[in-house]
Amino acid sequence: MVITDKIIKGKNLRYILRCPIKEDAEELSKLRVKIDGETENLDRESGEGLLTKEDFERIIYEDSISKTNIFLIAEAEEKIVGFTRCEGSKLSKFRHKAEFGICILKEYWGYGIGKALIESVLICVKNTEIKKISLTVVETNKKAIEIYKRYGFVQEGLLINDRIHKDGNWYNTVIMGKFSE
């Protein structure tokens, strides 16, 4: 799915929300590795589950022609600083569902980029057959959980001792979902 670029001015930062293009693939590959290394909030360690430039080129193309996939990037100061991807299920029994996630460079936290990405995805979903969006978030990421709740996501489950972080401790994963209006 492709959307029109959106310029956002807020919290001392001007940024653009747009769909990625093929030329963004290499930057996205490097950005994902960097973001993964900045926080324990994501599922991967830096370099795990690596997506190459070619992988991103394929994803960008597939999402651009999909009726249920949404891939958006946030671009500020002439670089990509974050992205979101909402991927619809290809299985007929789950064709009404999509999985959702957000990644933002740590230095750009607090500028409202995450909220803008969530709002854009929710607007896009209204025009599709997607009726439910699901996500997972580590239980200690209270700020993200509160933001998701403000947008109508509810906790649907808890995976106990689901992950082990670098500190050697076990952490729970919260499963959240939202039915579209």
From TrEMBL:
The record's section on InterPro entries has: Acyl_CoA_acyltransferase, GNAT_dom
Q: Name one GO molecular function term.
A: acyltransferase activity, transferring groups other than amino-acyl groups
Residues covered by the N-acetyltransferase domain:
15-181
Signal peptide residues are none
- Per its UniProt record, what PANTHER family does this chain match? GNAT-FAMILY ACETYLTRANSFERASE, SPERMIDINE N(1)-ACETYLTRANSFERASE
- UniProt name for this protein: N-acetyltransferase domain-containing protein
Q: Which organism is it from?
A: bioreactor metagenome
